[in-house]
Write a structure and sequence with these properties.
Layout lengths: L1 H15 L4 E2 L5 E6 L6 E6 L3 E6 L1 H13 L6 E2 L5 E4 L4 E6 L7 E5 L3 E7 L5 E3 L3 E2 L17
Parallel strand pairs: 1-5
Antiparallel strand pairs: 2-3, 3-4, 4-6, 7-8, 8-9, 9-10, 9-11
């Protein structure tokens, strides 16, 4: 059927196209790229940590491979720019579209953390806010007023 063919194609796509496997010491719940800097990636891990990675070098290598037809190693190690731990695992993560580098993460114990970009590629994680229920999704408003 068409569904089976599509599923098979999706499973084989990483084998057919250049890709990278970025090793992590945890299972990943969610991945989100910063809209203003697509090479900056937030990973929500099952151990309660959120990791920010800079994968710009890997993106450049993939672009070069696509143009030149060469193929480098698929497995890479990328050290996090920053790691922040929630009290439990979570799933909610969203980058602001209005302010580059601003991030919100939410966990299963009703906590939302707001990450503000600082100098030298670091983030300050602001005071936790409590919600009435477990936070599975979060989204910035269009005006992104966060004080």
């Amino acid at each position: 059927s068409n569904t089976t063919l599509l599923l098979l194609l999706l499973l084989l796509l990483p084998l057919l196209s250049p890709h990278r496997l970025v090793g992590q010491s945890c299972a990943i719940n969610r991945v989100r790229c910063c809209p203003q800097q697509p090479g900056v990636v937030a990973l929500w891990c099952d151990n309660g940590s959120v990791r920010l990675l800079d994968v710009n070098q890997q993106l450049q290598q993939l672009a070069a491979e696509t143009e030149a037809g060469s193929k480098a190693s698929n497995k890479v190690q990328v050290n996090p720019l920053q790691v922040h731990s929630h009290s439990t695992e979570g799933f909610a993560v969203d980058w602001s579209r209005a302010k580059a580098g601003r991030l919100a993460t939410g966990d299963c114990k009703k906590h939302i953390h707001v990450w503000e970009p600082q100098e030298a590629g670091r983030w300050q994680v602001r005071t936790t806010m409590y919600q009435p229920c477990s936070t599975r999704r979060c989204a910035w408003s269009s005006d992104d007023a966060c004080s």
